[in-house]
TrEMBL record:
Record domain Rhodanese: where: 45-88
Protein's UniProt name: Pyruvate dehydrogenase phosphatase regulatory subunit, mitochondrial
Superkingdom classification of source: Eukaryota
InterPro entries linked: FAD-dep_OxRdtase (IPR006076), FAD/NAD-bd_sf (IPR036188), FAO_M (IPR032503), GcvT/YgfZ/DmdA (IPR028896), GcvT/YgfZ_C (IPR029043), GcvT_C (IPR013977), GCVT_N (IPR006222), Rhodanese-like_dom (IPR001763)
This protein's UniProt keywords: Mitochondrion, Transit peptide
Entry's Gene Ontology cellular component terms: mitochondrial matrix
Signal peptide as annotated in the record: none
Subunit structure: Heterodimer of a catalytic (PDP1) and a regulatory (PDPR) subunit.
Localization of this protein: Mitochondrion matrix
Function: Decreases the sensitivity of PDP1 to magnesium ions, and this inhibition is reversed by the polyamine spermine.
Family per similarity comment: Belongs to the GcvT family.
Keyword Mitochondrion: yes
Length: 879
């Protein structure tokens, strides 16, 4: 039947293009002033792009009382990708902040018609996500748990219940589904117009047919925009140019890297069914079939995420307005097949059109927002990975808050532009990566999956050596890092396909690496860590660091200090170790993905003083972490220097020779809480030092280890990790790190006031460790992160990381506990008693497991004796 329709040339000829077919979805009116109205000479904020993102930012900025906002659109409002959107507002998102954005958008769109008088087509239809496999069902159950604790109604339903909600769905291959009754449909262009209407009423000037050619930046600050109709001076520029954002970012003299790339994205429209589909039928998402289906004017709209996407505009191409691209029925064929399997009753249905529109995708499937690391006042909101309508409201709100208040009201680090560097902006990288990303929108993502494209970009000089010894790799910020080493003779193929929510097949391998770290000595290549040097001719380096860090940096030369770099609210902007190399120079080690963010934070806060030098030396050093009780023996033998605690105490740094190589920065810290050292080796010596260490280590039982072992060790020691447990909304007081805060250091430091207040009044969340009690490691689902925590049956927070502890032989979860008033829901202070007196459960995909709560520190848990301060100081570091 479909073949007949597809080959029906008359049908094609008889049906005009999308622009004429879908009047209800496209821009029919405009709130913009008629062109030409001259542009203002200056504005406080200029927004480029009149799609859902630009109009949402304009709406929220104006709601927040900002005046003097100009929105420029090269074509007509909402005539970019927003016009072609399928209009599904879906909250079922795995990333917590994206979920919150979508939830907010849904609530906003619901009342927008009433607020503005513009018909938005909002219809609460609900959505059903189908599971064809048990693993898919587990992933849906995990999302359902997250939605439920946020108060968003959501249930896991049986195939029969699916049929009751949507009688046309074929359920024979389903094992279950997730139903979100409040998900909605909208006319996306009209939502965008409604936002523009409200913004315009609030004083935002909107100019259509006005193209931004480039943004002018002077001394690292936005000064204005050049357009085809003249220049506007401004303090803030917001790039909401959708798929054009990358090119616009590169158009000025100072490039702003916005790593996104367009792919063709298709959906099919049909004529109405004989018995037209009810407009209230829920949207169907069938990720295993790679398709979504919604009702559309009595017929259906169905699109999807094919396995072999078609990236486009790699060479750059800036059309004025997006037109429907070429139909490609061969390409759409597999999705069509999936649609027919899911709704066999459609076979006799007439196709109206195959819509094909570019949408932009990002290297990690998360959207991009925030301020440019290179140009202050240059903000970006783009790269929506086909979720732009769902995110639009919330994303616009967070970005507006960022501009007005200096920070958004939520932790948006997972979406922050500064998670990327220039390395993700190569056109080839982006083209290859988005070809992987688009299918991943539907692929089942088991814990710790890795991207396969764009790999081997940044590597340690030891890469080949480690690879030859069985290293299995993961990637962070473009850097290859070892997960674990497959011992000779193991089934390598199996281990490469370790896809499960249960006990993974690397369990024993990692266990033996952990054992070696505890009983002998292991080596982990940690070269990816960010490394900066800060030096000055006078005391500027010390003075600046004293202001930026909560700990006291005025320590004797050769000492290492673990410290947070906090924002005004006391939250962690960075969590780092700083070695004092000399009176006036410091060596800072930060997490891998802090390279851009931390650099920007320092640049923005260090005084403009030519006598103060900040240098990124990440690439100059290979870092080897020697972990375990025999590390001291290996290093003493290699350096002919006494390395015992009397000569080389904990938290000490010294340049020494190792083997033939000189100038190795040795620090007595590990990243696991075990005894040991980190060697920062100038890269040309890396292979030599590694060989020496491995040769000498033979007699002490040395072996290679990877990050999974490190992770298990750091989690069982309750060490928090920036980017996972710690963020800009978490203070040292909330995670048991008071010992890193020197409120009395006699100098003012950033965040000090907020910490004083917390010290006096208490904290509203506490970092807590949970040891699972009735959990069977072999048979039960594993916790990974993001699992809801229940205290006395009530939701109190979420886990931030977890691992199997080979020492405790139990699973350990770390997470934050809040205290909500039972009647009002108001947040209350979390006391030690509150933590200790509760009965806890961790929800893993809907099943609750009992857990024992522990507060930091807890060294009695471990049989291995260690002084408390050593536990605290020697290895809490992140990664
Ligand atoms: C086929 C398809 C179906 C989709 N379905 C859904 C869905 O069901 N649910 C969902 O949540 N998302 C969906 N999406 C994704 C969603 O439509 C997009 O993420 C969203 O519309 C992107 O909005 P935007 O404002 O970033 O981009 P756009 O809407 O493209 O807006 C960018 C605007 O910037 C303007 N511009 C660019 N450069 C300049 C310049 N130099 N000067 C002035 N103006 C400029 C452009 O003209 C354009 O109007 C779908 C996408 C596609 C393609």
């Amino acid at each position: 039947m479909f073949l007949r329709l597809l080959s029906d040339i008359q049908w094609r000829a008889a049906h005009p293009r999308w622009r004429r077919m879908t009047g209800s979805q496209r821009s029919t009116s405009t709130t913009a002033e008629p062109h030409p109205v001259s542009l203002p000479a200056q504005a406080q904020v200029v927004i480029c792009g009149g799609g859902i993102m630009g109009t949402s930012v304009a709406y929220h900025l104006s709601k927040m009382g900002l005046k003097d906002i100009v929105l420029l659109e090269q074509g007509r409002l909402a005539a970019g990708t927003t016009r072609f959107c399928a209009g599904i507002v879906s909250t079922a998102r795995p990333v917590s902040v994206e979920l919150k954005m979508a939830h907010y958008s849904n609530k906003l769109y619901q009342q927008l018609q009433q607020e503005t008088g513009v018909q938005t087509g909002y219809m609460k239809t609900g959505s059903i996500s189908l599971a064809q496999t048990q693993d898919r069902l587990i992933s849906l159950k995990r999302i359902a748990s997250s939605l439920n604790v946020m108060g968003i109604p959501c249930e896991i339903i049986s195939p029969k219940e699916v049929l009751k909600l949507h009688p046309l769905i074929n359920i024979h291959d389903l094992v279950g589904a997730m139903y979100v009754p409040e998900d909605a449909l909208v006319s996306s262009a009209n939502v965008s117009l409604a936002l523009a209407t409200a913004a315009s009423r609030n004083g935002v000037q909107i100019h259509e047919r006005t193209c931004v050619s480039h943004v002018t930046i002077q001394k690292g600050r936005v000064t204005g925009v050049e357009t085809d109709r003249g220049r506007i001076q401004c303090d803030y520029f917001v790039n909401c140019a959708g798929q054009w954002a990358y090119e616009l970012g590169h158009s000025g003299e100072e490039p702003v890297h916005i790593p996104l790339h367009a792919c063709e994205h298709f959906y099919l429209l049909t004529h109405p069914l004989k018995d037209p589909l009810s407009s209230s039928l829920p949207t169907i998402v069938d990720p295993d079939g790679r398709i979504y289906i919604r009702n559309w004017q009595g017929g259906i709209l169905s699109g999807g995420f094919e396995k072999n996407p078609k990236p486009l505009f790699t060479e750059g191409r800036n059309q004025l307005e997006i037109q429907n691209l070429q139909e490609d029925w061969d390409h759409f064929g597999p999705l069509l097949g999936a649609l027919l399997r899911r709704m066999p009753g459609l076979e006799a249905l007439q196709i109206m059109q195959l819509v094909n529109c570019p949408e932009s995708f990002t290297p990690d499937m998360r959207c991009i927002m925030g301020e440019s690391p290179t140009a202050r006042g240059y903000f970006v909101l783009a790269g929506m990975n086909s979720g732009g309508i769902s995110y639009g409201g919330g994303a616009g709100k967070y970005l507006a808050e960022w501009i007005v208040n200096g920070y958004p009201s939520e932790n948006v680090w997972p979406l922050d532009l500064k998670r990327f560097g220039t390395l993700q902006s190569s056109r080839t990288f982006l083209r290859h990566r988005v070809m992987e990303v688009m299918p991943l929108m539907c692929d089942l993502k088991v814990p710790r999956w890795d991207f396969q494209t764009g790999r081997q970009l940044r590597t340690s000089p030891l890469y080949d050596r480690l690879d030859a010894q069985g290293a299995r790799w993961m990637e962070k910020h473009g850097f290859e890092r070892v997960k674990y080493f497959v011992p000779p003779g193991s089934d390598l193929l199996d281990l490469d396909h370790s896809k499960t929510f249960y006990k993974p097949d690397w369990f024993d391998i990692v266990g033996s690496e952990v054992k070696c770290c505890k009983e002998a000595v292991s080596v982990i290549d940690m070269s990816s860590f960010t490394k900066f040097e800060i030096s000055s001719t006078g005391d500027q380096a010390l003075e600046s660091l004293q202001y930026l860090c909560s700990n006291d940096l005025d320590v004797p030369v050769g000492h290492v200090v673990h410290t947070g770099m906090l924002n005004e609210k006391g939250g962690y902007e960075n969590d780092c170790s700083i070695a004092r190399l000399s009176k006036r120079s410091f060596f800072m080690i930060s997490p891998t993905d802090q390279q851009v963010h931390c650099w920007t934070w320092l640049k923005n806060h260090l005084p403009d003083d030519s006598n103060l030098v900040l240098e990124d030396v990440t690439w100059k050093y290979t870092a080897l972490n020697l972990i375990g009780p025999r590390a001291v023996d290996v290093l003493s033998e290699l350096s002919y220097a006494p390395m015992t605690a009397e000569h080389f105490p904990s938290l000490f740094c010294k340049e020494m020779s190792v083997g033939y190589a000189n100038g190795i920065r040795v620090m007595s810290i590990t990243h696991t809480g075990e005894p040991g050292f980190v060697l920062y080796i100038p890269i040309e010596y890396a292979l030599h030092v590694y060989n020496e260490v491995m040769n000498m280590g033979q007699k002490y039982g040395i072996r290679n280890a990877g990050y999974y072992a490190l992770r298990s060790l750091r989690i069982e020691k309750f060490f928090a990790f920036w980017g996972q447990d710690l963020d800009a909304f978490t203070t040292p007081m909330e995670c048991g790190r008071e010992f890193q805060v020197k409120l009395d250091k006699g100098l003012e430091f950033l965040g000090q006031e907020a910490l004083w207040e917390q010290k006096q009044n208490g904290v509203y969340k506490r970092f807590t460790m949970f040891i699972l009690e009735d959990h069977d490691t072999d048979l039960d689902l594993w916790p990974w992160w993001g699992e809801p925590i229940f205290r006395n049956g009530r939701y109190v927070g979420k886990t931030t990381s977890s691992a199997y502890s080979y020492t405790l032989e139990r699973h350990v979860c770390l997470g934050f506990v809040h205290h909500f008033d039972e009647k009002t829901g108001e947040e209350l202070v979390v006391t030690t008693d509150f933590i200790n007196q509760g009965e806890y459960e961790i929800d893993i995909a809907g099943q609750r497991f009992q857990a024992k709560a522990k507060l930091y520190p807890f060294s009695s848990l471990f049989t291995q004796r260690r002084r408390k301060d050593e536990v605290e100081l020697s290895g809490y570091q992140r990664e």
